[in-house]
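Format notes (please read before filing issues)

Several people have asked whether sequences and structure tokens are stored in separate files. They are not. Every record keeps both together, in the order shown below: the sequence lines, then the token lines. Line labels are part of the format and must not be stripped during preprocessing.
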Amino acid sequence: MTSLSVICSSGKVRIGTDHSVPAASRLLHLAKWPWSERSVTIFFLLTLPLAAATITGKVELRDSREASVRKRLDYSGVVISLAQNVRPTANLSDTHVTMRQKDKTFSPHILAIAAGTYVDFPNDDPIFHNAFSSYNGQIFDLSLYAPGSTKSVRFSRDGIVRVFCNIHSSMSAVIVVLPTHYFSTTGRDGSFHIPNVPPGDYQLTVFHERATEATLNALSHRVTVDSSTQLPPIVISEAGYLQMPHNNKYGRTYAPEPDDRSIYSATKK
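Then the structure lines:
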């Protein structure tokens, strides 16, 4: 049997947590103690932190032009987060996550991280890449780097970082940098779960690449966490979304993509 212990004037008081003993019996036992011991024990128990909760739910996408959504009901890549006014206190200086460049594709396409995290960008293609972002979330430029090598960026502030390759215009990804450790990215069925959330009041926010800012703002709301909770379905409309073309890192239109067998190839002709 495990127990909690406090010290009072008469010595050590032990509160059993063995759930095989009926709750009524434990309360009756407590009622027989001297009042001073009961007071100290009750105060001690009230100051114990409540158990962390797991928040679960599902997302549904509507009004989509994407075949993957309309035909295959793929609701993946939506980021759900819970944040408080207090910033994360954990030291993230050594935390690394990975966004790979493989087959001229960034993977994962949507990456959610807590502010302060490093993102590694390994080049797993047999050609050169140049990952960059010129958006306000965090501006960076990794310049050209060879196949088999990697470079890293530390994302120190929250925001939306849109990532591109300066060579291959078709390559794009989004890094969602959050002021919290409590977040999840939906799977194909739209489900998400956020574990180990301490009790308290949080602001729930949603990010979806193909939703307007107004749509996302309307979905944000307060959530009180006091036990594991199944949230109501979150319905996101893609109406009004327009995919805008992007420029290269110099702010100019992309030139035609080079022949991968030429100067950007890692293999000899």
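For reference, the curators noted about this record: The helical segments are 23-31, 35-46, 67-70, 213-219. The radius of gyration is 26 Å.
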